[in-house]
Design goal:
Blueprint (H helix, E strand, L loop, with lengths): L5 E8 L5 E7 L4 E7 L14 H8 L38 H19 L11 E3 L9 H5 L5 E4 L2 E4 L19 E3 L4 H14 L6 E6 L2 H11 L8 E6 L7 H9 L4 E7 L6 H16 L8 E6 L5 H17 L4 H6 L8
Parallel strand pairs: 8-9, 8-10, 10-11
Antiparallel strand pairs: 1-2, 2-3, 4-7, 5-6
Length: about 350
Amino acid sequence: MQFVRGRVAEVVPISGNELMVRAEDTLLGEQLENIFDLVVLCPAILPELGIGELAEKLGLHIGSDGFLLERHYKLRPVDSQNDGVFLSGCCLGPKDVRESVVEALSTASRTASLLGKGVVTISPEKAYVISERCDSCSECVKACPTRAIELLESGAKVKSISCVGCGLCIPICPKDAIDLKNSTESQLMATIEGTAGATTTMPKIIAFVEATSAYTACDLVGLGRQHYPTNVRVVSVPSVGRLHARHLLAAFSAGADGVIMVEGEGTVLGEERFRTHVNEIRKMVASRGIEPLRVFATRTTIPQFAKLASVFATFTERVRKLGPLPPEARSNIKQVAVLR
C-alpha cells in the first residue's frame, strides 16, 4: 500500500475496468499518472437535517444549496446576517480542514473583539417606530429578516441590537409607522428631488444603489478607469428593499427619465425577495403611466464592478430611445408622496 500526499486532477476510464489517475505529488512537486482498478471519490457533503430549524431560531439565511449564508463572502465571510452570530466550517458549505481551521480562528477573533470590550457599539442607522401611527398589524414583524421587531401591547418595538438598518420593514408598513434614522423618509425624498433636479445631462437617470457592496462596486468603476455615462446619478440607500414605488415616482416627478436599482449580493434582501420586491415596484410605477422599460434592477458583487459600467451605458441607450418622459406623465405623479 502506498500513500501519496497530493492533488488529483483527473480520473480517466481506459480499457476494461481500469482507471487512470492524473495527480500531483505535493511533497515532491511531481506529476503522477497511474492506473488503478478502483478509485474511491469523496462522498458529497450535505447540510444537516436540522439546519432549517436552527436558522429559524437564530434569524439566519439559507442559500439555494441548503447551507447557511454569510453576511458577505468577501467583506464579512464569518458574520451571519444577525449581528453577534458567527459562522465557520461546513455549515457554510463543503470545506477542507485548512479552510475550516482558518474560519474557526477568524470566528474566535471576531467573538473576542465583540466580547472583550465589555460594551457593544452599534451603528445609529436603526429603524424606529412612530408609536402614534402604529396599529399593531405585525406586517413589519413578518418582513424583518433579523427578527429585530417585536409586537408588544403598545405596538411594534425595534430591538436596536438586532436591527441591521436595512429598511425592509419601512415600505411594507401600511401606516408609514416606521422610519430609519439618518435615512428618514424626508431625507431620502429630499435627496431624490435634489439629485434628479440638479442633473442636466439627458436622459436623466437615477441609480438607487445598496450602500455597502454595490456602492463599493460603483466606486471601483471610477477607480478602475471604467467609463459610464455622466447622466447617471447615484443615490445610496441601505438596501433596495428600503425603496417604495413612491420613491421612484418622486424621481420621475423631479425630472428623471429612467431609474436603476442595484442591490449587492449576500445582503439581507435575498434573491427571491429581491425579484418579488422589484416586480411589485414595477407594477405600481406602471399603474401611474410610466413604461416598465424605464425601470431596471440588477445585483452585483464587488469583483463584478466592471459590469456596472456596461449596465449604465446599456440602460442609458434604452432610455434615450424611449425619449424624455412626457410632461403629462410627470404632472400625473406630482402628488405621489403619500402613495400606497
